[in-house]
Amino acid sequence: METTLATTQEVINRAQFFDHWQGHRSLTRKVIEAFPEKELFTFKIGTMRTFADMVGELLAIAAPGLGEIATGKKAVLNEAIDFKNSKREMLRLWDLATVAINKYWDQMGKVDFQQEHLSFGQFPGTVQSALFYFLDNEIHHRGQGYVYLRALDVEPPFFYDR
Amino acid sequence: METTLATTQEVINRAQFFDHWQGHRSLTRKVIEAFPEKELFTFKIGTMRTFADMVGELLAIAAPGLGEIATGKKAVLNEAIDFKNSKREMLRLWDLATVAINKYWDQMGKVDFQQEHLSFGQFPGTVQSALFYFLDNEIHHRGQGYVYLRALDVEPPFFYDR
Asked: Which residues of B are less than 8 Å from A3 in CB distance?
């Protein structure tokens, strides 16, 4: 009984967390698609970055960051991704990251989410805190992308459209 | 051993999830504090709402939504919160919500996070999906608040400052 209780009382299980994360990534993909191509690479508000630069950060983090956790091999944080000013190229790299994340997740079976983990040689925490950072940071910047779309008079996708 | 493995391999435990959520709420409070009072209630981009209106939504969801889960008593979604155009009043209501959330969380001991739950009589899912919606939705709108602050030439708090 003890075991059953502990299992059903998990906050979120691994499969759910993975679906949740990839669901959010699917929504971010829709936000990229919604951008007019020119403004994706040029539009900004205040001293902020373009949405393309933010997407560069998200791509620099997600698959390489999970890869470090799944394989134990260190990765370098490289946000300067060359999209060649092309939305199609950005979406291609996004989809490659999705495939890589799926592959790494399949290798996570023996990873303890509570173990200490240093991301990119500079961000200390645990596997749990790292994964939540990856997710939260994407929601945060995608929310900013929503404002850019609204400022450009483009209707963003629904928040629950994963 | 089986039990130990299951426990340490939880994605995130209850105490961690709670600290994570309240940490995010603490950051949102700092974003409210960073707004110039007039613009908090008047500034918007495109067809979007003011940040005060978004905060009204967040307050309508967090404590009442958790209260439904913790107590089983139905709540009504009421986003039209009267802040009296006062940042101090908004922060007072924010802090009251923090206290209410702490109180409700203490009553969550017997709640199965995987059980079905209908939020506000209209949003079906599970306790898990409801709690993640509360959290994700706040990160999303707070990210939008960051853009408003940048557009107003105000430095937002650091994302990791919880």
From this structure: 2-3, 6
